[in-house]
Amino acid sequence: MSESDAFRAEARQWLEANCPPSMRLPIRNDADMVWGGSRITFHSDDQRAWFERMRERGWLVPGWPREFGGGGLGPREQRILEQEMRALGCRQPQYNLGIWMLGPVLLEFGTEEQKREHLVPMARGEVRWCQGFSEPNAGSDLASLRTAAVRDGDDFVITGQKIWTSQGDKADWMYALVRTDPQAKKQQGISFILLDMRSPGVSVRPIELISGKSEFCQVFFDAVRVPARHVIGGVNQGWRVAKRLLEHERAAMATFSEGGAPTLDALAIAAPYLAAAGPVWRDRVAAALMDQQAFALTARRLKEMAIAREDVAALGAIMKLVQTEQESAKYELLQQLMGQRGLAMEGDDFTADERAVCRMWLYTKSYTIAGGASEIQLNIIARRVLGLPA
């Protein structure tokens, strides 16, 4: 038996023994998700057990070095573990933006002191992170950000605002881009810094959305003091760090595209309406489901490429565009098929799935803006992937 086969057998046996049956079911709502952080919440004993067992095994971050709380697995072993978890239907034991995006950047650009301070708590699910990139006038044009960080002794004093910060009201720490040299060209005067959300001068205000959810927030900085040692990759070198982080952000989409986030069974919802619909509608639903499956398979490939440390920048830019446009089109199609019943957000005359369709239709409008508007993604693909002239 090869080493890979031996590890596969060991991983399968361990997962079968340690992943509770309820943690092998599809995620249907927010309560099914465990977000790591200082205020971590478990909605069942099985959630807690699955989280704690994976944490002690080091498999919350299987590819990180053991000294930083990881499992110490190589790329091949990580792929095998992913495959075995998928085969059993195992849920993600936790969700953590820090692990998916900031962690890999710290491993590459962080000092030994920064790694030891932040990676171990992150690997144990003890800190929840949010991303402070977008600003009111610097969203898709990220390099135009104006949040200022002025050096004062051993600290930077930060003043400004971030917007569309996902889960900013629940986060313990933020990784942010700030302008440390206002005289330099756009990308050359930016630094990547870590800051404690409990610092004096930080205030958070949720943004009310048309879907009824308030996942996004505004974050204000009023002369917030942050130690200069929290700058990652060097002062005025933040742009290269941010670009690498965004590559990991694209790869992290695979976690959500394969049942890793609350989802609706589009086929089950559409079935009663399809029975009375013509062949054109059935073809449109079938095409949407095939697109969804094709994306999931491509996302799986993207994740494996990232694990193998291959360049995923080009594919990631395309995937972001495709995913958001597909989700928006899927719920647009469901609403057209359902007619007036697809417009209900409340009422006992409607099923929970019918009410959820309307909320998701509204919520997907943010998908094509958050993380880079679709129009900007098309420009990026045209220039940086296809090499077309500006």
Describe, in plain words, how this protein is organized in 3D.
With 390 residues, the chain is an alpha+beta fold. The protein has three domains: 3-102, Butyryl-Coa Dehydrogenase, subunit A, domain 1 (Orthogonal Bundle), CATH 1.10.540; 129-232, Butyryl-CoA Dehydrogenase, subunit A, domain 2; 241-385, Butyryl-CoA Dehydrogenase, subunit A, domain 3, CATH 1.20.140. It has helices at 3-18, 45-57, 75-88, 97-109, 112-123, 238-257, 266-274, 279-307, 313-338, 352-367, 374-385; strands spanning 129-132, 148-152, 155-166, 173-179, 190-196, 202-206, 216-227, 231-232. The strands form two sheets. A four-stranded mixed β-sheet has the order 1-4-5-8. A four-stranded antiparallel β-sheet has the order 2-3-7-6, with no helix packed on it. α1 packs across α3 and α7 (266-274) runs antiparallel to α8. The radius of gyration is 22 Å and the shape is globular.
Set out the fold topology.
Elements: H1 3-18, H2 45-57, H3 75-88, H4 97-109, H5 112-123, E1 129-132, E2 148-152, E3 155-166, E4 173-179, E5 190-196, E6 202-206, E7 216-227, E8 231-232, H6 238-257, H7 266-274, H8 279-307, H9 313-338, H10 352-367, H11 374-385
Parallel strand pairs: 1-4
Antiparallel strand pairs: 2-3, 3-7, 4-5, 5-8, 6-7
Helix pairs in contact: 1-3, 4-5, 4-6, 6-8, 6-9, 7-8, 7-9, 8-9, 9-10, 9-11
